[in-house]
Amino acid sequence: MSGWWRSGLCQPDRVVHRSVSGDLESHRGNHTMRRAPVLVVGAAAAIGLALTISPAQAHGGHKPPPPPTPTTLAEGLLTPLSLAVGADGTSYVTQNFAGTLNRVPRRGGAPTELYASGGAEVGGVSVKGRTVYFAETGFTGDPATNGFTGIKSIDSRGKVRVLADTGKYEEKYNPNADVEYGARDISDECLAQVPTGPEFPPVKYTGDINPHPYATLPAAHGTVFVADAGANTIQRISARGKITTLALLPPIPATVTPEIAAQFGFPECVVGLTYWGDPVPTDLEWGPDGWIYVTLLPGGLEAPGSGAVYKVHPWTGKFKKVASGFTSSTNLAVDRKGNIYVSELFGGRIAVLKKGAKTPSTFVEALMPAAVELSPKGLYATTGALIGAPTGPEPPTDPPGGMVVKYPLPKWHGHHHR
């Protein structure tokens, strides 16, 4: 993927850009992470857009039902991009750019720091019993500065354990190395006319080495599943730390429009071609049918409504599309009835796909919702996730504005099943 889900940029010393559809890209010094998004604008402008556009505008002007009123549990968080809730109502939230894992009391209050990486991104939090799992991404693309990238756990006594080094696994195997992304059918003559350079997205490319574990999901017998947003894969980690690729997800097609071509000075011959974007998995949750449900968004050309939910069989790796029509789908929660809640980071809402529905609807309007989690007490979410995030080499002008909130559940909701 071309964005921050892929690049592992979530560190404050990197310059951040976003496409109008929600993709982010990083630059550190003279080194540029691959696959710059199309329609790139500054992150500050993108955040301003998210602050002003209403979800009704983003989703066809339909007026949503009266929204539930949230309870604020924590605030002042820097990029709270992942969230988990324990059986006792304690919530765990990562501040990805800050590289920390924090605990929030069930009644709310000041977060307690459980873990700090010292610089690398921390995200992908999940909890099972008294053990909290999380991902750490120190991959930079430069062997001289690469740090640990993989999965860790922390127990109730604060002991941290390394479960697997998924970065080394990606470097060794690179499961999507032979997958062709971009404009597959572009002619050599047309390709020769396409401008090149770090400021331009690649028009045609194959999967490179780019580990970015973005979500974790614990299972029975010490198994942990991982959504790697850089490798475009779902991985399975055994209790002994053995990593296998469970599923390599399919590329997501989009059509190159005249507007996109003009934005980057692409020649006219590119217009109308199908661009096969990276299939970027951003979260994992158990469904009531025993399958793993996955949010997916496209790297490269992310048009509004191009995000999707898939489900993956936990042992065979077989996958099926459940629904599409989501915008910047970064996280999900599934209840025992099969209702699916999805955070749309730049869509201005938490969407819900009700059991049996073919298209998502609005559960609640929210500013930059990054993560959602269900418990019998309500729907937990992080909002304002990029307020105060660095948008360039200069210090941010706004203080961190991320929050953990809790919404009451609707009457038709089925309680969380795990």
UniProtKB/TrEMBL annotation:
Keywords: Membrane, Transmembrane, Transmembrane helix
Cross-referenced InterPro entries: 6-blade_b-propeller_TolB-like, ScyD/ScyE-like
Gene3D superfamilies referenced in this protein's UniProt entry, alphabetically: TolB, C-terminal domain (2.120.10.30)
SUPFAM superfamilies: YWTD domain
Residues passing through the membrane, by range: 36-56
Protein name as catalogued: ScyD/ScyE family protein
